[in-house]
Amino acid sequence: MATQHDDVMAESASTDRSAEVDAMAASAKSYVPDDSVVEAAHIKDYDAFRRAANEDIEAFWAEQAQALEWYAPWEQLLDRSDAPFYKWFVGGKTNIVLNALDRHQKTATRNKLAFVWEGENGDRRTLSYFALDREVDRFANVLRSLGVRKGDTVTIYMGRVLELPIAMLACAKIGAIHSVVYGGFSAQALADRIADAKSKMLITQDGAWLRGKTVDLKDIADEAAEKSPFVQTMIVYQRTGQAVTMQAARDYWWHDLMALPIAIGDSGTAVMEAEDPLFILYTSGTTGKPKGLIHTHGGYQLYISNTLKHVFDLKEEDRWWCAADPGWITGHSYIVYGPLILGATSFMYEGAPNYPYPNRWWQLVENYGINILYTAPTAIRGLMRYGDAWPSRHDLSTLRLLGSVGEPINPEAWRWYRDVIGRGKLPIMDTWWQTETGGFMITPVPAQTLKPGSATKPYAGIIADVVDEEGESVAANEDGYLVIKEPWPGMARTIWGDPDRYVSQYWEKYRDKGYYLTGDAARKDEEGFFWIIGRTDDVIKVSGYRLGTAEIESALVSHDAVAESACIGVPDELRGNVIHAYVILRDGYEGSESLVKRLKQHVREEMGPIAVPAEIEIVESLPKTRSGKIMRRLLKAQVMGQPLGDTSTLQD
Ligand code: WT7
To answer: Which residue in 175, 448, 523, 563 has a CA-CA distance of 20 to 30 Å to 218?
Structure first.
């Protein structure tokens, strides 16, 4: 049994995962890669590659950056003078679009497919690098003519359609900052993000297909625009053809604008400073408000293309499928920008994995000859549930590598993924990273030994460690805080409009040492393999989605009936965790089944379906410390039927 630092684990309550890791690490069988895999890999001696990188991180990144085009070279690779506000490639002039699109127009890549797409309803579409560039040019012209300027923010609220990357790239091209809001978020959540980013422009679509029904994105966007006074212009892409209301002088159809003469012609890529912001992406943290993390044109483009090339060993002929949503960091980095910079062919699918039948994904792999599949444990578990017969009806032999992201992958799912989808032999790249890190941080590469359940080791140039409260490395197999000790080019630069929060959230705890606090607990074994335990803060991963307990609690408290609330994550076989909420009612309200239903509906409206608690329990009181802090750990122990542990700080 691993020793646990009480302080690390006190409120994190991830003891089940800790026990799971005990079992996994103890029985860990190492999977040594086949010679053929090593032979084919971009980097054959990865240990040497990493060692050299870590010896001189700056020299490593300077060398790797040669793979990219720059309008003007940087004067200083890394400026530490204003730490933790690190600056990379200072003085360098670039634009991520220069590398993602422009430079491919000069080579045979212009004739290669950038995207292959299938709609849930069977619609199909492809875009070559040339055609994608044309679309982006046109849309960039449209944005400019509607008054969008360098440095303006544009909110994008769409489903998985190719117009989403087109819109993102067009923003980047003209130097506007995109803020993509996941299409599963509610009107309120969208309105909050529009207001925080102060976007005057909102890009959406009429509806998106999901499980044979439409998600009415335009209706939700209308509601959000009403709640948020900023939106002056809305561009609507027509996907489903469903009826929507178009508000005169505010709303325009995408196809109408793209057909105008102003859309024609090369729009010109804006020359950006390496450190200029590329996008804002909101994610959940410990406190109520979601934080808008900022990523830049310069360091980000290097980090994501470099990690993608080496971790998934992308080859000229590959068909790459990252099955995430472009609305999350995984999609930004590894559906949109990373693959395009590498000149790869990406597949995108609009709908649900099990629609109309649970073989949909496997049919797509077969039909499109997918070589690399990258998805989340929750999706694997979901499809595993339907049994082996569904995938076994399909020819999955084109697959040569598999990937996992978003939460720890449990041994059962790992084995099924490898045995049933990976023909009993494909390597699984379990990549640990975060919205904040921009790209993969702790991850295997194909030519490296794997241990199921471990994300293996830090990427080249990434100095990660597991430390105690004081920042000292803990012994092998002890749990502690996962930290990153040196800056890396893909790191988020700040929180939009709230630099103080950036410092307090990520850098304050180990200020003297200058370590980045990830918010995860982890363990390192004798061989230096990292095992991720889970979050140490009040962030819960539900089906791989990141939710803050504080956000759900404030959504509940915003209902008239609720005086106080506490939410916890409870382990769930399919979804990793589910939310259990405890609420104290205001005077005059009676607990009932219908009230619980209404509260769930309320959370759905405030945040979206992903945040709806699996259980809402109405209680008389909540366990609190004498200083008034809710002891979520006790609520959790009670649900799990575990001992309550130390209750000496409990109020009564
Ligand atoms: C949190 C970050 C990075 C893209 C998607 C998630 C958890 C992520 C793994 C993994 C164990 C993982 C961590 C992390 N996480 N990948 N391979 N193994 N845990 O990004 O929404 O910012 O969430 O996801 O807890 O801190 P995110």
So the answer is: 175
pLDDT tens-place string over residues 387-411: 999 999 999 999 999 999 999 999 8
Distances in whole angstroms, Cα of residue 268 to Cα of each of 136, 404, 484, 632: 11, 37, 38, 53
Q: Note the pTM of the prediction, 2 decimals.
A: 0.94
Q: Report how far residue 2's alpha carbon sits from residue 18's, in angstroms, rounded to the nearest whole number.
A: 8
Residues 131 and 113: beta-carbon distance below 8 Å: no
Residues 310-319 as b or e (16 or more Cβ within 10 Å = b): bbbbbbeebb
The closest residue, in CA terms, to atom 6 on ligand 1 is 406
What is the DSSP code string of 467-506?
E-TTSPBPPTT-EEEEEE-S--TTS---BTT-HHHHHHHH
At 23-60, the pLDDT tens digits run 877 776 788 888 888 888 999 999 999 999 999 999 99
Q: Which atom of ligand 1 is nearest to the CA of 535?
A: 25
Q: How far apart are the first and last CA of the chain?
A: 32
Tell me how far apart the alpha carbons of residues 545 and 377 are, in angstroms, rounded to a whole number.
Answer: 11
The sign one gets for the Cα dihedral 472, 476, 482, 487 is positive
* Parallel, antiparallel or unpaired: strands 345-349 and 113-118: parallel
| 551 in Cβ contact with 612 (< 8 Å) | no
SS3 sequence, 43-79? CCCHHHHHHHHHHCHHHHHHHHHHHCCCCECCCEEEE
CA of 491 to the centre of ligand 1 (A): 15
The enclosing H or E element of 208 equals strand 208-210
From the list 93, 152, 149, the residue with the least C-alpha distance to 273 is 93
Q: Which atom of ligand 1 is nearest to the CA of 433?
A: 3
